[in-house]
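Review form for a predicted model. The reviewer records the input and the model, then writes brief findings.
Reviewer: anonymous (R2)
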Amino acid sequence: GLIEESVAKSSEGTAKVAVVAEAIGSITGAVAKARGLVDEVSVASRQQAVSRRSVAGEHMGMGVLFLGRG
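Model under review:
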């Protein structure tokens, strides 16, 4: 009757909620992983920029030294 039908629908709803919760958990994990990768790229990019400035400064300094010898 009505009670059995309500129990069945409730069980179906509970199963669907479990599936959705698992999907949300997967999405959350993927977002966290992507965020970690973005952070790593950002750090590497800053390090590379600092390194380039340092190398450029060294080359400029060497150019000044060579010009001074002339």
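Findings: The CA atoms of residues 47 and 69 lie 33 Å apart.
Further findings: The chain has a mean pLDDT of 87.
Recommendation: see findings above.
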